[in-house]
Write a structure and sequence with these properties.
Blueprint (H helix, E strand, L loop, with lengths): L6 H4 L32 H16 L5 H4 L9 H11 L3 H12 L6 H13 L3 H13 L8 H10 L1 H4 L4 H12 L3 H12 L7 H13 L3 H10 L9 H13 L3 H11 L8 H13 L3 H13 L6 H13 L3 H13 L6 H13 L3 H13 L6 H13 L3 H13 L6 H13 L3 H13 L6 H13 L3 H13 L6 H13 L3 H13 L6 H13 L3 H13 L6 H13 L3 H13 L6 H13 L3 H13 L6 H13 L3 H13 L6 H13 L3 H13 L6 H13 L3 H17 L2 H8 L1
Helix pairs in contact: 2-4, 4-6, 5-6, 6-7, 6-8, 7-10, 10-11, 10-12, 12-13, 12-14, 13-14, 14-15, 14-16, 15-16, 16-17, 16-18, 17-18, 18-19, 18-20, 19-20, 20-21, 20-22, 21-22, 22-23, 22-24, 23-24, 24-25, 24-26, 25-26, 26-27, 26-28, 28-29, 28-30, 29-30, 30-31, 30-32, 32-33, 32-34, 33-34, 34-35, ...
Length: 732
């Protein structure tokens, strides 16, 4: 008769007939496990079996290869089973004897099945699992199929153990080694005997399917198996939430969480944390935060994984202060941050340039007994190099080595890039050589940093040689490498070679992107060649590339540098028509041009338009406007803007301080001028000589000789002996 059909039948897997079963049942009933009794040994065989069993029991501590060596030549496959009958109550002895015997003769399928039953029934599941795994992974030539193996286990079940865990182990092993079809056949065959495998075993199958990207099959089984008696638990639902998150199907993942309680399954911290991590990975930060509040309301305490997922997103969005606030909340709730959380925050602060906070967190780690690892050191070294503090990065690199940590390619490359940006090419190549001696292979990023340093130092030929060396080593040049080289060539004014390199890119089937075009356009604009810059813009548009706000800012600066303010205004209108939102830099360029021309009416119009677009003026905006109003003698407007920028946390730059102080002096508002001068000096900003001369004259005219001499000493120190004043004047 046909065996019972179930949901698996619809998925294409039919039930298999069981050998050795004489008692069949009806369609709706379940089968009994078959009766079994092994064949009887002869008198001669019984004597040999007795000798083997007695010997291994009495000489148990000794290796079997020694105590049974004189009997090896008499051993046959049937003897193994008969010996089992004598020692079946000692599962360890059964296992060791079986391992010894199968290495000398071909143990039968029946012997394999019996030893598995004995081991499971005697709490020897670990050894039983190993026997199953060895058999299904490397079956003997005589064992034809997995079906026969399952038949054997069913056939010997009643006599040798009657522990259903045997089939759970078989199912789990099949799932673990990827034999999903065979695992499903085990499940289906056991149903015909009225046996439903444990939910933990079924979870193993779900885990393997998800791990192997077979998500759709996992979904089908998750929906079908409850109809066959499987009661999914919280771990099952967590696996499926993870599966849905893995493929970005967040609404389905959320539905699984919402449906758990309706099935009588209570979501745990892992359920919520998995879903939170999924939302974080696709950038849905608010949904992740809402879930944290929801789980807290249900009495579930978020763990380190829960918080770290959100902290990573906040740091990636440069919201590092909020991320640290969340970490403090994490500590207050009794969850101890680990290295990953701290390192993520340190990296976040480094990326926004707040090294003080990064070091504060590193010190906090040490206080809490956490050790800075390779990743933490590398993050700090990258941050220091990004801020131009290469000497400090070098000291940290040495400290890392002194502590027994081994820098990797990323660490070396970060410091090499730092040296290159500081034009310390000798140190960069020396570190490159050290890296190679340590057995590390420089990657495309390493060589790109070296090439950039060479180009910016004017060593274009050396950069080209390095380019050929990269290709010779089998490294595939990417768009970043080419863009770096083109940028370097543009910096030293070799535009034709930069343009030629862009053509070479296309021949290598690495097509120039917006950055490539914008870099060369910027170089043309700086040398006043707006026609060629326009030509590149047209070429970009013809190729279907969308210019970015940076592209337009480059063109804007080119027009304004050439005194073509009207063209700059037209470009701004064109940007808006193309739905490219101007940024603060765009408007600041126009403001600067109008302020230089003392056209403060146009400046006010631009500022009003900027605010209407939802853009907030930055420190540069205020400094530009204050200098403009000072030049136009609008002290009232300049003073108002100064007050406003101070309230917003911005500071005047040196030229704005000088302009505002001189304007206050001209309006005879000397007390305010002195107050601003003191503020300027307290902030470490050096006034220019005109300001010093003005206050020397004022102090002298007031008869304040001490003040006059103090200003004279300061101007000599700051503007004649030191270089500070010259540098500040150069920045104007």
């Amino acid at each position: 008769m046909a065996l019972q059909q179930n949901r698996f039948g619809r998925l294409g897997f039919a039930s298999m007939a069981i050998r050795h079963i004489t008692h069949l049942c009806s369609f709706d009933s379940t089968r009994p496990f078959p009766d079994y009794s092994p064949k009887k040994p002869t008198i001669k065989d019984s004597q040999l079996v007795y000798t083997i069993a007695t010997t291994i029991k009495l000489r148990r501590p000794e290796p079997l290869r020694r105590v049974l060596k004189f009997l090896e030549h008499q051993l046959r496959p049937d003897h193994i089973i008969w010996v089992f009958m004598k020692i079946r109550n000692d599962h360890r002895l059964v296992f060791y004897f079986f391992e010894w015997a199968k290495n000398r003769i071909n143990a039968s399928l029946e012997a394999h099945c019996i030893v598995i039953h004995i081991l499971v029934s005697s709490n020897g599941s670990a050894h039983a699992r190993q026997v199953i795994k060895d058999f299904v992974s490397n079956p003997e030539p005589d064992f034809v199929s997995h079906d026969q193996f399952l038949d054997g286990l069913i056939y010997t079940y009643k006599e040798w153990g009657s522990n259903i865990l045997v089939f759970d182990l078989l199912f789990q092993v099949y799932a673990e080694i990827g034999l999903v079809e065979e695992a499903r056949k085990v499940f289906e065959r056991l149903l015909s005997y009225g046996v439903v495998l444990s939910v933990d075993s079924c979870n193993c199958l779900l885990v393997q399917l998800v791990r192997n990207e077979r998500i759709e099959l996992a979904i089908q089984l998750f929906k079908a198996m409850p109809e066959d008696g499987v009661c999914w638990n919280v771990a099952s639902h967590n696996v499926m939430i993870h599966a849905m998150c893995k493929v970005g199907r967040m609404s389905e993942a959320h539905d699984i969480l919402l449906g758990m309680e309706a099935k009588g399954v209570t979501p745990d911290v892992i359920s919520y944390s998995t879903l939170i991590d999924g939302y974080c990975r696709i950038g849905e930060l608010q949904k992740a935060l809402d879930l944290i509040r929801e789980m807290e309301a249900k009495g579930l305490n978020p763990n380190s994984f829960t918080y770290s997922s959100v902290i990573v997103v906040l740091c990636n969005r440069s919201k590092v202060t909020e991320a640290e606030k969340l970490m403090r909340e994490m500590v207050d709730s009794g969850v101890v941050p680990d290295n990953v959380v701290y390192t993520t925050l340190i990296d976040g602060f480094c990326k926004i340039g707040s090294l003080k906070d990064a070091y504060r967190l590193a010190d906090d780690m040490k206080i809490k007994g956490l050790v800075l690892d390779n990743v933490a050191y590398t993050v700090l070294i990258c941050g220091l190099c990004r801020k131009g503090k290469v000497r400090e990065a070098e000291e940290l690199f040495k400290e890392m080595i002194d502590r027994g940590l081994n820098p990797d390619e990323i660490t070396y490359t970060a410091l090499i890039d730092g040296y290159c940006k500081e034009h310390k090419m000798k140190d960069a190549f020396s570190l490159h050589n050290q890296m190679v001696r340590q057995g590390l292979t420089p990657n495309i990023v390493t060589y790109t940093a070296l090439s950039d340093g060479l180009c910016k130092g004017g060593e274009v030929d050396a950069a080209n040689e390095l380019l050929h060396e990269m290709v010779g080593k089998g490294l595939v040049l990417n768009i970043y490498t080419y863009n770096t080289l083109i940028n370097g060539l543009c910096k030293v004014g070799i535009l034709e070679q930069a343009k030629k390199l862009m053509e070479d890119m296309e021949e290598a089937r690495i097509y120039p992107d917006t950055v490539t075009y914008t870099t060369i356009m910027d170089a043309y604009c700086k040398e006043g060649n707006m026609d060629k810059a326009h030509m590149l813009l047209r070429e970009m548009l013809e190729k279907g590339m969308q210019p970015t706000v940076v592209t337009f800012n480059v063109l804007m600066n080119g027009f304004l540098r050439a005194g073509k303010t009207e063209d700059g205004e037209k470009l701004l209108s064109w940007m808006i028509e193309k739905s490219i939102m101007p940024n603060v830099i765009t408007y600041n360029s126009l403001l600067k041009q109008y302020c230089m021309a003392k056209d403060m009416q146009a400046s006010s119009r631009i500022l009003k338009e900027m605010r209407a677009k939802g853009l907030v003026p930055d420190g540069n905006t205020y400094n530009i406007l204050i200098k403009g109003h000072c030049k136009a003698r609008n002290l009232k407007e300049a003073s108002y803007l100064h007050k406003e920028m101070t309230e917003l946390g911005y500071r005047l730059n040196v030229s704005s301080y000088n302009a505002l102080i001189m304007m206050l002096c001209k309006k005879s508002r000397l007390a305010e001028a002195r107050e601003l001068l003191d503020e300027m000096r307290n902030n470490g900003v050096v006034p220019d000589r005109d300001v010093y001369n003005k206050f020397i004259d004022l102090s002298y005219s007031e008869g304040n000789m001490e003040g006059t001499l103090e200003f004279c000493d300061e101007v000599i120190e700051k503007c004649l002996v030191g270089e500070s004043c010259g540098k500040q004047m150069g920045k104007k």
